[in-house]
């Protein structure tokens, strides 16, 4: 009996069992890796799809379609990019586009009648103003040096009269009066300090505020 048991143990191919067990473990691990890879690819594809379709998130596919949505004042500034004129500047703010004109281009000191050169300056702006659909607020500004004449008892009257003079020119040039308004601010809205001649010169100005209507 003992002898037969010894023969049986010798005849059993232990190496074959070990080899088969190793192959099964390898196949199990390989299957798990493939499954994990498929899951990762699937999750990445789903995340990319949700990003592309979620509102408000730009993507390569929806970017060109959304490019037509622009800020309210976008597109107005380029109309004035070619405006190269000494003493005239363009600024864009929350309220709209502002054309800022130094007063010495338009008026003589202490006066509110447009000079010949001032009329030419305003005339050069008319085509661009006509292409803009919205309200145009003509605003007069002065420095803080007091004025007291028979016609202009204070800077309030002077700034308002200058704004009205520009408004009348624009109206005569064909800009509808329903789109125009004139406001005088005197020295209440300075751009620079009135302590220097340069600052006072910057504060004496006429501004055309272009507001887009709703």
Automatic annotation (TrEMBL):
List residues of the OmpA-like domain: 94-214
Chief location bin: membrane
* Transmembrane regions listed in the UniProt entry: 21-45
Instruction: Please name the CDD domains in this protein's record.
Output: OmpA_C-like (cd07185)
Q: Where does the UniProt annotation locate this protein?
A: Cell membrane
Give the Pfam families listed for this entry.
MotB_plug, OmpA
**Topology of the protein relative to the lipid bilayer:** Single-pass membrane protein
Provide one Gene Ontology cellular component.
plasma membrane
Q: State the UniProt keywords alphabetically.
A: Cell membrane, Cell projection, Cilium, Flagellum, Membrane, Transmembrane, Transmembrane helix
The record's PANTHER family line, in alphabetical order, gives: LIPOPROTEIN YIAD-RELATED, STATOR ELEMENT OF FLAGELLAR MOTOR COMPLEX
State the family named in the UniProt similarity comment for this chain.
Belongs to the MotB family.
Write down what this protein is called: Flagellar motor protein MotB
Q: From which organism does this entry originate?
A: Halochromatium salexigens (Chromatium salexigens)
């Amino acid at each position: 009996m003992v002898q037969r048991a010894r023969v049986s143990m010798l005849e059993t191919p232990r190496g074959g069992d070990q080899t088969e067990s190793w192959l099964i473990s390898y196949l199990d691990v390989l299957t798990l890796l493939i499954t994990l890879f498929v899951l990762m690819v699937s999750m990445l594809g789903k995340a990319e799809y949700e990003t592309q379709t979620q509102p408000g998130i730009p993507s390569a596919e929806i970017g060109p379609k959304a490019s037509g949505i622009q800020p309210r004042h976008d597109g107005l500034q380029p109309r004035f990019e070619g405006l190269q004129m000494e003493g005239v500047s363009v600024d864009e703010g929350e309220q709209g586009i502002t054309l800022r004109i130094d007063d010495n281009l338009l008026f003589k000191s202490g006066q509110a009648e447009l000079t010949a050169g001032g009329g030419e300056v305003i005339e050069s702006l008319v085509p661009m103003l006509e292409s803009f659909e919205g309200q145009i607020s003509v605003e007069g500004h002065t420095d803080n040096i007091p004025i007291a004449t028979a016609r202009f008892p204070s800077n309030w009257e002077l700034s308002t009269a200058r704004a009205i003079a520009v408004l009348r020119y624009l109206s005569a040039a064909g800009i509808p009066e329903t789109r125009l308004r004139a406001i005088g601010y005197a020295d209440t809205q300075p751009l620079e300090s009135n302590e220097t001649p340069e600052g006072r010169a910057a504060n004496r100005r006429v501004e055309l505020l272009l507001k887009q209507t709703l």
